[in-house]
TrEMBL record:
WD repeats lie at residues 97-132, 146-179. It comes from Glarea lozoyensis (strain ATCC 20868 / MF5171). The keyword Repeat applies. Signal peptide: none annotated. Keywords: Repeat, Transcription, Transcription regulation, WD repeat. Residues 358-385 are annotated as: Disordered. This is WD40 repeat-like protein.
Length: 454
């Protein structure tokens, strides 16, 4: 087996490092978030939220920073319908945001402006808040409601440009909202901006409760309970590089001929009807079929691709490297590259029928670790036995082929959290992609690591 130094870091996926269980705590951790404002070389810091304190269950958290001195601030919320902003260093409660009429299920900070906070509630609305001390007397900047959701809102996510927000809920609906550039003319005043209609709304991607959504550039990842898959899809005509659509262009409830409505121009027609969205891929998450199990996508860097992470209800963490899909698509049609160990990506390990004595006694698929032995590389990957290329390609197709949008792609790596059984609730990535933390039931959290030799 190749030494650690021979592994290509760009293809390396996390391995289990350690797991912990808080003494005398047997409730669920529902949320985990890394502090996003660390500088290169700083330690990665994350926060866990769960359990019950002072008659309130806590469900969600997110980080921001003090606009005056840069200190890390933690925003937490849950069954009390309040958002508490805490100095993460001293533990002091700095502010409490009031306004929601029901439990708060998710929080998200704007990636372009740490003063802007979004919250999702059982009162059927999403609220946008300003945590700028200048707006302390009236922190609610906007309310996204109206015809958005008709059941509790469970999940939200900002686009990286800060002008679009996804929401998903117990009604099975996914909405894309267009946001003003905050602070807008109403921020800090007595009447917040009211956004009555999303610019895109659909109930066709999922059939059940939507409990996790996230942008992948301009594409969307989403998940529902009882479906055992994460879906990657796109909104026809949507591009973040296009001008922000006018608020009056949002389709209203009176235009609901179908369960999908969109303000974005369709690029094509199907049977005379506008093509409003396209399903692209599905990722297989068996035993992920209960509410409040949330994936996380590391967006990638210049040298490493985006990586999707999910922990199921039996302590198994699955990973998919989205750049592997593109690499596989570019090389699979060229047989000479597939059989050349220098040109073949290191994550494509061929299946070898190992020979012992006089004949073939068993088949073994090589490790999913992105390594090849040095001798195997020199000989085309056929030292230990005869390579079965047909079986190799069949195994690769299960993980990397993108030709069927309704076929679930198997994980590129699976890691079992050893020693502690728990149901995964959420995954989170450190800003540099080195660490992945998963949390869940029975007070358990686990740490997985890439690039352990660095």
């Amino acid at each position: 087996m190749a030494s650690r130094q021979q592994i290509q870091p760009e293809w390396e996926l996390p391995v289990f490092k350690e797991a912990h269980q808080l003494p005398d705590f047997r409730r669920d951790w529902y949320s985990v978030k890394f502090y996003p404002y660390t500088k290169p070389g700083d330690d990665s810091v994350f926060a866990l939220v769960g359990g019950r304190h002072d008659d309130e269950d806590f469900y969600t958290c997110t980080w921001t920073k003090d606009p005056t001195n840069g200190k890390p601030l933690l925003c937490v919320a849950g069954s009390g319908a309040l958002i508490r902003i805490v100095d993460a260093i001293s533990g002091q409660l700095l502010r409490t945001l009031y306004g929601h009429g029901g439990e708060i299920n998710d929080l998200a900070i704007c990636p372009t402006n740490p003063k802007i906070l979004a919250s999702a509630s059982e009162d059927l609305t999403v609220r946008i808040w300003s945590v700028d001390p200048a707006h302390e007397n009236q922190p609610c900047a906007a309310i996204l409601g109206g015809d958005g959701h008709n059941d509790k809102v469970l999940t939200i996510a900002f686009h990286e440009n800060g002008r679009y927000l996804l929401s998903g809920g117990a009604d099975g609906v996914i909405n894309l909202w267009t946001l003003p550039a905050f602070p807008d003319e109403n921020t800090g005043k007595n009447v917040p901006t009211l956004v009555h209609y999303p610019h895109f709304s659909t109930q066709e991607i999922h059939q059940y409760i939507v409990d996790c959504v996230q942008f992948h550039d301009d594409l969307i990842l989403s998940k529902s309970d009882r479906e055992d898959s994460i879906v990657l899809w796109s909104i026809a005509g949507f591009s973040s590089s296009s001008p922000i659509p006018d608020v009056l262009s949002a389709p209203t409830a009176h235009e609901r001929q179908t369960s999908t409505r969109s303000a974005f121009s369709p690029p094509a027609l199907t049977d005379g009807a506008p093509l409003q969205y396209t399903r692209l891929l599905q990722f297989d998450i068996p035993e992920g079929d209960i509410v409040w199990m949330r994936f996380s996508l590391f967006p990638g860097t210049e040298t490493t691709g985006p990586v999707l992470a999910f922990c199921n209800k039996f302590s198994k963490v699955s990973f998919w490297d989205l750049r592997r899909l593109e690499e596989y698509a570019s090389i699979i049609s060229t047989p000479e590259k597939i059989k050349d160990p220098v040109l073949r990506p290191k994550f494509l390990n061929p299946y070898q029928r190992r020979q012992r004595g006089r004949g073939i006694i068993r088949g073994r698929r090589r490790s999913n670790s992105p390594t090849d032995s040095t001798a195997s590389q020199r000989s085309g990957g056929d030292v230990a036995g005869t390579v079965d290329w047909e079986k190799s390609k069949a195994g690769w197709e299960m993980r990397y082929a993108m030709d069927d949008p309704l076929k679930d792609l198997a994980p590129h790596r699976e890691e079992v959290v050893k020693g502690l059984d728990f149901c995964g609730r959420q995954a989170a990535w450190s800003p540099d992609g080195r660490w992945c933390v998963v949390v869940g039931s029975m007070g358990v959290w686990a740490v997985l690591q890439r690039w352990g030799n660095k």
